[in-house]
Amino acid sequence: MTREERGNLIKGILFTSPWLIGFSVFVIYPVVASLYYSFCHYSVLQPARFIGFLNYKDLFTDPLFWKALWNTLYFAVFTIPLGFVMSLGLAMLLNTKVKGMAFYRLIFFIPSLVPMVAGSMLWMWIFNGEYGLLNNFLMKLGLANPPNWLMDVRFAKNAIIIMSLWGLGQTIVIYLAGLQDVPVSQLEAAELDGAKWFDKLIHVTIPMISPVIYFNVVMGIIGSFQVFGQAYIMTGGGPQRSTTFYALYLYQTAFEDFRMGYASAMAWILFVIILVLTLWVTKFSKEKVYYHGG
Amino acid sequence: MRLNLKTKAIILSSLVIFVSHLSGCADKGVSSDTVKVTYWEKWTGFEGDAMQAVVDLFNSRNIKNKDGKVIQVEMITTSQLDRRLLTAAAGGNPPDVAGVWTWLVTVYADKGALLCIDDYLKEAGITEERYVPVFWEICKYKDKMWGLPSTPASVALHWNKRLFREAGLDPNAPPKTIQELDEMAEKLTLIQLPNQKKPVSFYELKTKKNYEELLAAGKIIQMGFLPSEPGWWPWFWGYWFGGRLWDEKETVTCDDAGNIDAYNWVSSYSAKYGVDNVNKFSSSFGVFASPQNAFLSSKVAMEIQGVWMYNFIDKYATGMDWGAAPFPSDHGKLQDVSYIEADILIIPKGAKHPDEAFKFISFVNTQEAMELLCEGQRKFTPLKEVSEGFYARSENPNIRMFRKLAESPNGFITPKIIIWQEYQREIGFATDLIRNLKATPKAALTEARKAMQLRLDRELEVARRAEKEK
Hints:
By secondary structure, chain A is mostly helical. Chain A has helices at about 5-35, 55-60, 65-95, 100-110, 115-125, 135-140, 155-165, 170-180, 185-190, 195-210, 210-225, 230-235, 245-255, 260-290, and strands at about 40, 50. In chain B, strand 4 and strand 5 (about 145) form a beta hairpin.
């Protein structure tokens, strides 16, 4: 390395140092520390005490851990495919050539700008069993006894799934960008070969936007396993713990019960679950995702 | 690239400004002959104003510390104080004084995060005799004192006299037993049946043969009483039936006979009025501090509430004709049962000015300051001695009754169990099952007891191990 190169390297490091320091202090250190604390009895107020795998052992026999995991899986299993169908469907509708399209696109994007807390408060009223807009509508449709959404154990989780479909604006925009990248020439060629709307969708559009789908599915997995805000605000985990999602239980153990070690162990298990699912999707994507560049 | 002197100077001075902002420049505007005590408090609104008046009074007295410096207290209103205090304490930068709930005293004291004030109390000559016993007890954990009360509270039955009159009940005769309460509640519960102009009371409805069918088709529009309203203390019903939540040592007892009786009573409301009916009716209530509050909007005629309720009646249901009396016990066997709470002023370990912090806490506990505070918050005082005119000045018409409840031997406080947060969540869950008739009280409470005993055992085991290593 010449003197000049070394000088450039130092300058380079100096210029990137704010990020390097920030990343080390606010990301690497907490990650490593939480791994260590997951093997400790740690209340934050006292020094951590190493207890080996006890937190992990306790977790596997903790019924609430399994309940929270089940609730989260249920949420993810419905939210990811429903979100995919809804956002792709809406993106396709918003990709048609209709007058005033910019306005429609705006309408569907706006909900994603509403903060989580405000959105949750709004949906609490929509779902209200007595005065709710939704039940009012259902009663007009002829349903005599609509559900008491947030207070009924059979419906509370589903209500949160419905609500999560409301804020799909960001995903729609990404799909829309992908759809606009689908080469018109290929769609026309398919049409000449006699392909109908559905054939074009399956054989041209979806393969061409497969990288976008892959990205959104991975983000969907990460997002749905971290569902927290809606349950924290709207139901507090109830009724009968039907909306105690993984992240909510983790929050309760860490910040209400002062069991940071246990919560750290939970966080690492969540990390492994998300990692495994993402790797699985990535493996699947190698066969199915088509990149224009090869 | 070479930087000229001017550019270097600009970069350097910007850095200095940035770093000085980061460090907070905490003592801005405080001269060297004063000491600033930071005080975190959870109150807002008129309750916050009442405490601020006490802080102002303290500051105006120019009270000095041992070095002759004047102590100035700055009160900072903090939301989610328990969580912020945790991070501040962990970060080694806690406030000098904090106003917390009693459960937090147990947890923090157990984890060594509070300063024990025994020596300070001795030095200042503050003794147990000055206080209504329960409030001294509230501040204790493992025979040591960890703080002093600021304002106290007790809970009682509140009833709506207009609704009593409309139901043909004597508006000045609240129920004396749980059984009387249940009967009155039936008379006060109104059901709107389909195709009928006037609602009918449950008491009347139940005389009909097919009343269950009628009830299912009807809609509750008013209830006499609901154990789930306001729903803040799903764990405490056992105390009116002689139950206890733990033995105050190592055993969880939430499924003792008293508790099972209590939750049988809770579930009787769901069985009587119908789970769906009650849930639907409950979802029509607005938030607590609003005119849509179940009690303030006259939807629920009787409710268990604290000494603070008067303030909300005054604000959101001005002119309401109401009364408050001790909440009745099972068959009236126990007299004056009440949940007693207090806000406690504590000094977190690591506080920069603990001596000065205690000076402030002891000032709040003088009769003058305490009465100013409690009058402002419209509560009673935790001090034994009450000045002449305090009760006369109080706007709360039931203030003496609330104070009497605090003096009752049947008053109970938040259990000083280190897993309290989990425990109350667990009982909340059990109550949820019981209320929805998804489990019998015995089954649900036994499950809760087993889960919580496991948790308590684990905590005790870790504590014992730590003790051994010491």
